[in-house]
Each structure stands twice: as structure tokens, then as C-alpha cells.
Amino acid sequence: MMGQLSSEQERLFYSFNLEDHIPANHLLRSIDQCLDLSDLRHYLADFYSPIGRLSIDPELMIRMLIVGAVDASIIKADASRQRGVPGDEQVNWSDPALSTRAVREYLEALDEEALAETLPKRLSLTDPQARWTAAPGGSAFYAYSTNYLIDTEHGVIVDVEPTPAHRTAEVESTKTMIDRVEMLAWMVEEKDIEPHVPVWDKTERKNDSFSSNDSHWDEEAEEYSCPAGNALRSEWRAFKNERSHVTKANTIIFRSRQTDCVTCPMKARCCPNTSIRKIARSVHEAARDVARRIAATPAYQRSRHERKKVEMLFAHLKRILKLDRLRLRGMSGATDEFTLAAAVQNLRRLAIFTSQGPPVTG
Description:
Blueprint: H1 18-21, H2 27-34, H3 40-44, H4 58-70, H5 96-99, H6 101-109, H7 113-116, E1 131-133, E2 141-151, E3 156-164, H8 167-176, H9 181-190, E4 216-218, E5 223-225, E6 231-232, E7 251-255, H10 258-262, H11 267-270, E8 278-282, H12 285-294, H13 298-319, H14 330-356
Antiparallel strand pairs: 1-2, 2-3, 4-5, 5-6, 7-8
């Protein structure tokens, strides 16, 4: 049965009173004025049995989680069994049903296509869904990543999505933001979303030779024109059976004619080491062109500046909330902790805004 405190909180799991440990000017008291949990019991009613022993008040549990997430120094954990709180029920770690939940979740998740595509080289025996990762200049460790969807105007987190950490890929994607042209195509062609992301362009040359951008693309003829005006096509003769010419990398190779390149005065700058010029064009190049055009607009510069608000939330998560390690295992545990941390970040922001009062006008 769902329990409910009938009076002020006197005893928690042991002799501990929140009022005695939270200073009068602490941010938690401002958060308490903004936090409304009146509908919590109604929302959780279907998860409790109508008969049986009374449970701990769910509102109290949520408030305790928020207290720990906002300022963990108020309540210090004691994980020692020898100094455990009297009367607490210890977890029987010899029981596989209790001790192997994280492993069981991992094995179940292997059936999902997203995790079954690539298996990790290193595997944690205590938390198999965590990923072996390392930041530049630091030691490697097992970790999860959290992804935020925020309202940039107010800096409020509206969605949280935890994932296994792939730091090696994340470091490169931080520099280039996106190399997955399939994602660009999904944003532009299917969802009609403006992709405010830089495009990884490896076509630029460091020397004075021509890049693929120096060749003009003719959409109607589906061919390139090199700086000398010669054509580059995906096929120069008709085939009996039509071919797509799409490679495993989802590109189409456009080639010039050797007869054009041999006599071309620009060959030394175009293809000095090969007999002909080749250009690999992505099948999603149209979406990449859209992203390139948007990158030159003032709106893109504003959105790039607002991206700092997301990075600031991640910095607060580590430096202010001190969330440098997770206490729960498995993807479900990471989801719970990251969601709780995001809720606390929103509550902190709400408490600060309400304490400042309405803006002065006139």
C-alpha cells in the first residue's frame, strides 16, 4: 500500500531530520517553494497494491532524491555493511535475481539492432552497458553519456536521452559536429528541418590543387564540369542493364575522360598523380548543400552562439551537481540518474528566477 506522512517529517530510514541539516538560506528552500508534488500519489496509484504493508511515502522519496542531487553533502552515503543503519535490509548479492540485473539488461539489449551492430572491445563485468572511453589527456574508464534537448531561449531542459559513451567518436564529432550524411538527409528530406550543423568537408586541398568544389555540378545533366570545362560522368557508355553506381560508402564516382586530361593544361593542378580526375559524390549531397548554404546565414551564427547554453548545462552537471559517477547500474539506472539531474537543474533555474521577482518595467 502507498504510504503517506501524516505530519512533519520526523524519521526517515533512521534518525535524520531534513530541517536540521538544510540551512535557512539554502537553495533547496527556494526549490521547495516551486516544487509541486500534489499529483504524484495520484499518478503512482496504479503501481501500488490496495492491500499490504504501507510503503515509504513516494513524495518523501522524490524529495530525498532531489536533496541528494542538489547537494549531496547534506546526506553522506555509508556503503559499509559493517556500519550500516540498524534494521536495514541488506541486498543478498549471492541471489542472481538481485545481483545480476545489469547483466540481464545488457543481454536483453543485445537483441536490439542499435547495440547489436557493434560490440565493444572492452566489457565491464559489473555494468556491461557502460562503454570504455577516455577524454584527451585523461585515463580511460567506463561511462555513459547524456544528451539534452533544451529550450535555448530560457535554458530549460525539455528532454534527456542517455547513451553508452563512445568518447573516441565524440571527440571527432565535436570538431566536425556531423559526418553522418544519412542524418542530414533525414533532417532535410524526411523531417524538413533546417540542419544548423557544420558539414565535415574533406574536399579542400592544402596546396594549390583543385578541390571538388572547384568543379561545377549540373543537376539536370547529373555530371560535373571541371575548371577546364570538361565533363565528369558516372558512366561514359550505355549498359544493357541499368546500374546504380552506388558504392558501399553510399557515394557515386564521377570520372573524366583520359583523352581530355592528357591534353589539359590544368592537369598539374587537377590530377597530377592520376591519369584521370575522379570525384566521389555522396548520394545525400543535396542535403549537405542545404547545410552549407545555411552555414553562411546570420541565423546559423545565432544558433551556433546559443549552442553554448547546452554546453553550460553539461558544465553545471559536473561542477555544481558533482555528477561525476553513477550510483545505479545499467541503462535504466543511467536514465533515472540523468533524468533526476536534469529535473534538479530545471528546479534550480526556476528557484533562481522566482527569487528575483518579476522584471521591472517602465
